[in-house]
Design goal:
Strand content: 25-35%
Number of strands: 4
Distance between the termini: 28 Å
Radius of gyration: 12 Å
Helix content: 25-40%
Number of helices: 2
């Protein structure tokens, strides 16, 4: 499974990531560290990850057992 963060050293952070299983998420173009990226957001707007392109961002959502949704 792809991970949103590379630093799962903290058990609490890992447990929080497991609680996202089944939740809806969406992708949005953004800038991270002065680089254009595609951010993964939960429906409350919290950014939980980013990827260099839309396809990888969407794959992260599906691979993490979350539900990809479209917002307009």
């Amino acid at each position: 499974m792809l991970s949103f963060n590379d630093d799962f050293n903290d058990v609490q952070e890992y447990e929080n990531s497991l609680s996202m299983i089944g939740l809806p998420a969406y992708v949005k173009q953004t800038i991270v560290n002065n680089e254009p990226m595609w951010a993964v957001h939960t429906l409350d707007g919290a950014m939980i990850g980013s990827a260099p392109n839309r396809y990888i961002a969407e794959a992260m959502i599906v691979d993490s057992d979350m539900h990809l949704v479209t917002l307009h």
